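fold description:
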Amino acid sequence: MSHPIAAVSTGSQISAIGILRMSGDGCIAAAEKVFTANHKPLSQAPDRKLVLGSLHDKDGRVIDQCMAVVSRSPHSYTGEDTVEFHCHGSPAVLAAGLEALYLAGCKPAQRGEFTKRSFLNGKLKLTQAEAVIDLIEADTADSAANAAGQVGGVLERKLAPVYNDLADLCSHFHAVLDYPDEDIEDFGLVNYSANLRADAKALYALLQTYGQGRILRQGVAAAIVGRPNVGKSSLLNALAGYDRVIVTDIPGTTRDTVEETVMLGNTRLRLIDTAGIRETADAVEALGVQRSKAAAEDADLVLFVCDGSQALTQEDQDIMDLCLEHENAIALINKSDLETAVTPDQLPFTTVIPICAKTGEGLDLLADTVEEMFRGQAPCDGSILTNARQYDACRRAYEALLRAMQALQLGLTPDAALTDVEEAMEAMGEVTGGTVREDITARIFQRFCVGK
């Protein structure tokens, strides 16, 4: 067991309920010093049953009537003794209660320390622990469902058969090598070729989900491009729901990329409003145009905007050529409330939507189109890779298996192929936490807030 820690786990804002959380050896005794149960001492309370009582500050004054719940080792979130006080959500009450717990022997919890202890005590695999923060930060139902699945161990269960296959292969080889006099079936790497192919195929299928997972976690990066004064900033403001960007009739008002995250229907968009693309002698505006082109190249989606009340220009054509090089591009004919000078058949895009950024006309159709365009094939049940670190480790494991199979085809000795198999196992261990380095673990839990 480790020293007791304490933290507010519900933030610093006024709320109906606020929670003080403790974990570690001695936390129950520390909790008893600041909490008086109405019937019997907290140390005698049954596990996971709410107990009513009084919370005291450092001077012994009653500052709240609240509930306490004890979970004893090993049947707790962290695997240690834990106590929670469910208080009224006054920041002053929580701060006073926390100060009293520090004086009673608890130390301040670090970022993510409760979940880190859960991982170190074997209550969670690393995939599950990382998914906890994804679940906290989830802002769509799909991202929450996938994170919840990973907290439940879905990703771990997908990787386990592959890892176990490779472990069986290596253990058989080393058993024959180390114990030649024992009655052990002769090792033949060729007998494992089908297993290696199946394992590589499973990792490849998992890697293919990362594109969907990245968008699920980060949202769709959508660059709004077009020549000056076609309504790009007005579109961003309409989607954001407030005046995020200055809108004027003066061309070149937007001189740099402006980003805003919005929910468009069921899709999270990271909108990038860009400077109007045109030839200009203004050095500052020219730099903005360069950034606009770079944003369009790097985005997941390009939204080309033209002014539907004016005939298309050569600038429009040049920008369309740039957009059509992108895999995902949608053309928006803005200002549909004015007399039309541009028709959809004039734009060489697969998807063309008339809109009015001023009134919101056409934005529902845009939301449906974007959702359909980025709807993934894999179910959001926890089996999707959403984490760049996990993706990199799985990629290295897959490439190591490819090398092992190539060694097998070339007829190399088993130990040459097994070097790559063991490298694949080590990379997979970085995903589950079996071989992850301490510095990587520290960075992972730095993503968490205090109290989780």
Remarks:
- The chain has three domains: 5-109, 125-209+378-452, 225-373.
- Residues 5-109 form a domain with the Gyrase A; domain 2 fold (CATH 3.30.1360.120).
- The chain has a mean pLDDT of 84.
- The radius of gyration is 29 Å.
